[in-house]
Amino acid sequence: MHNHERKGIEVLVETFIRKQLGLKAHTVTKVEETEEFMIIHIDRLGDRLLRCGLCRQRCRKVHSVRKEREWRDLSMRKLPLKLRYRPRRVECPRCGLRVEDVPWAEAWARVTAALSNAVARLARELSWQGTARQYGLNWKSVATIVKRAVQYGLKNRARPAVHMIGIDEVSRRKGQVYLTVVYDLERRVLLWVGEDRTEEAVKKFFTEEMGRRRCHTLQVVCMDMWAAYANLVRQHAPNAQILFDRFHIVKHLNEAVDEVRRAEMQRLTKKEKVLFKRSRWLLLKNPWNLNGDQKERLSTLVRWNTPIVRAYYLKEAFQLFWEYRQPARAEALLQKWMSSAMQSRLEPFKKFVRMLRSHLDGILPWTKLRLSNGLSNGAVEGMNNKIKSISHRSFGFRSAKNFIAAIYHCCARLPLPVER
Ligand SMILES: [Zn+2]
User: Can you give 230-264 as a three-state secondary structure string?
Assistant: First the structure.
């Protein structure tokens, strides 16, 4: 290749990169290729005005030239790009002596805005370790990028009026540390994460995140019966109806079934255990869908009339409650169910009924609210599962701060910084 041809190609590459980076007061002077990197050398373009790094106003006077800095950028084909430039210090009429604003990166950043946004987007799908590997960065850089993105997103997110929220707790490190999460159930988006599950910690959601004015639009607050949040709702959102939601009630019901099953398994003989394990799914089927052999096995099981069979039937009967359209009928069913559960001689079910009875004013509104507010039973559960998967794929975050950042990043639909 002749020398002037090579020169021509280089000019093309430099122009291309200059346009890609959107440089106006800067230019690409050289593109250098090493084994590991493509290095883009940048310099100031003539005496075009530079901007203040703080307020971004154009400044007439350049004070001095600082030492060379490097920024990682997205890869060009296989080679990662690095930008090299000696930032100027400018005299801003408003802010005084400041380092100039560079259009390819935020003032604090060691990577370009394009790369940090790409990293942030991938970190919504992969673990931080996996994201770091993809971009040849270390875990800490990814953590910094995500935390900055979350900080930006929380400051710049849309905050429409909120009508229905779900408050729940999530655990980190196998139940040793608890966080409180609050979802907007209409938009199916995470609103807030609190560092504990105490009343004191959750108070901040109402006082700091929502504020008095926004609290007034709250109509429904879904939560668990055990939760310590009911007082807070009465105090800060007096217009809101507390609802102990389906997801949590079913969870307690399943725990009662489990407790009965565990006790039962200790009592059964080995042969009975095998028969039971092979047949218990029959209890959950509609009898008219079973064939002859299955019916036979089911009736054996029912004839046992063991605690576990009674527990399964009680559980199934309870599910009808969710389907009613008329509040009076739903309540009648629930009352009937509670008295038969009290007579079941199953201690875990009696405990469950006692819990229901003391929370009825937050359970019965379900029938009306699910129709009038389009309340979906899957909303809380879906968000919950998403958070669990974030926790799992990252082998449990070692610090609560990082876990909280990851939850916001994946569930709050935050906007990413705008690339210039
Ligand atoms: Zn300034």
Answer: HHHHHHHCCCCEEEECHHHHHHHHHHHHHHHHHHH
Q: Which residues contact 195 (CB under 8 A, 6 or more apart)?
A: 179, 201, 400, 404
Helix H or strand E segment including 183: strand 177-184
Share of the chain above pLDDT 90, in %: 59
Show Cβ contacts of residue 350 under 8 Å, excluding neighbours closer than 6 positions.
Answer: 341, 342, 344
C-alpha–C-alpha distance, residues 192 and 121, integer Å: 20
Per-residue model confidence (pLDDT) at position 155: 96
> Looking at residues 267-274, what average pLDDT do you find?
79
Q: Nearest to residue 356, comparing CAs of 340, 373, 370?
A: 340
Ligand 1 centroid vs 67 CA: distance in angstroms? 21
Distances (CA, A) of 16 to 13, 19, 203, 225, 278: 5, 5, 53, 61, 68
DSSP string, 77-146: TTEEEEEEE-PEEEEETTTEEEEBPPTTS-TT-SB-HHHHHHHHHHTTTS-HHHHHHHHT--HHHHHHHH
Instruction: Compute the distance from residue 155 Cα to the ligand 1 centre, in Å.
Output: 21
**How many A from CA of 48 to the centre of ligand 1?**
17
395's torsion region: left (phi>0), alpha (psi -120 to 50) or beta? left
CA of 61 to the centre of ligand 1 (A): 12
Centre of ligand 1 to C-alpha 58, Å, is: 8
Report the amino acid identity of residue 354. Answer: R
CA of 25 to the centre of ligand 1 (A): 17
Tokens for 122, please give them: 């991938």
Taking each helix axis as running N to C, give the angle between helix 246-267 and helix 347-357, from 0 to 180 degrees, rounded to the nearest 10.
160
Instruction: Record the tokens describing residue 419, joined without a space.
Output: 């690339």
How far, in Å, is the centroid of ligand 1 from the Cα of 143?
29
Confirm whether pTM is higher than 0.85. no
Q: Cβ neighbours of residue 303 under 8 Å, at least 6 residues apart?
A: none
Cα-to-centroid distance, 50 and ligand 1 (Å):
11
Q: Cα of 59 to ligand 1 centre, how many Å?
A: 8
Q: pLDDT tens-digit profile of 103-115?
A: 999 888 899 999 9
What CA–CA distance (Å, rounded) separates 250 from 227?
Answer: 15
Number of neighbours of residue 93 by Cβ within 10 angstroms: 12
Q: How far is the CA of 175 from the centre of ligand 1 (A)?
A: 49
Pairwise CA distance, residues 163 & 238, whole Å: 13
